[in-house]
Write a structure and sequence with these properties.
Distance between the termini: 40 Å
Bound molecules: nicotinamide-adenine-dinucleotide
Number of helices: 7
Strand content: 5-15%
Number of strands: 7
Number of domains: 1
Order of helices and strands: EHEHEHEHEHEHHE
CATH superfamily: NAD(P)-binding Rossmann-like Domain
Helix content: 40-55%
Largest sheet: 7 strands, parallel
CATH architecture: 3-Layer(aba) Sandwich
Length: 259
Amino acid sequence: MPNKKRVALVTGAGRGIGLGIAQCLAAERCDIAVCDIHQDEIVKDALERLRKLGADVLYCRADVSDANARSEMLARIREHFGGLNVLVNNAGVAPKVRADILEATEESFERLMRINLQGPYFLTQAAANWMIDQRGQDDQFDGCIVNISSISATVASPSRGEYCISKAGVSMATQLWAARLGEFGIPVYEIRPGVIKTDMTRPVVEKYAKLIAEGLLVQPRWGFPQDIGRAGAMLVRGDCAYSTGQAIMVDGGLTLPRL
Ligand code: NAD
């Protein structure tokens, strides 16, 4: 990580994987803009934990699927920090109901596309334009974008098809933005988490615990937000500087083909 402090925006960092990533970036001398939809009171402890790691922390209550909220958030970051080096598109949701694709609704499909794909895609567009401007003014500018997709980008779960399609879209978005931003020296990466213990997996904790016990994973334990955070810190630090557009699997070997 360069000596100068950098500014990282992590969406959905009020808890779970996003908070794990924000903690690892704060430990690497990043100041952090936390984006989430929760009221201030709910994220108070999370922000405090980040401040204890030495980060200047700005909380932006914003819904990534709302275009106005996204531009207001970037304006606040500009006002507070003056710049932005890192965008981590982490905020995402599972379907409210896991429904067979023979029955699942268009409403749920649209909700997931807006939050998991369209929001991050256009947040990336705005952040990328800002990063290009910053680089135009300072050739030492150090920018980086990380998308949190999922093993569901390639593993088909017919009980949550809309989630899988949204994450496959994030995977293509990673490649598109990597291809477009290469000339500006801004790498774009993707992390594909496996089964991570967070509020998102709470409703299926017993199901996954049983699958893990039965051999689902090569490394037979739940993943934790820190597992994703450490991979994110590695990418932001520049340890994989010549690998733009790549997806890093953090899945305990779930997608390793085995016989
Ligand atoms: P989580 O539900 O614990 O945390 C997600 C955070 O994002 C929450 O704080 C939530 O309020 C916030 N958020 C939701 N919608 C938002 C919106 N519209 N705008 C801004 N913030 C919003 O979930 P998590 O497990 O930490 O998941 C984080 C990311 O990792 C998601 O994109 C998820 O799809 C992905 N992922 C999770 C797992 C897993 O097993 N938990 C596996 C693969 C991928």
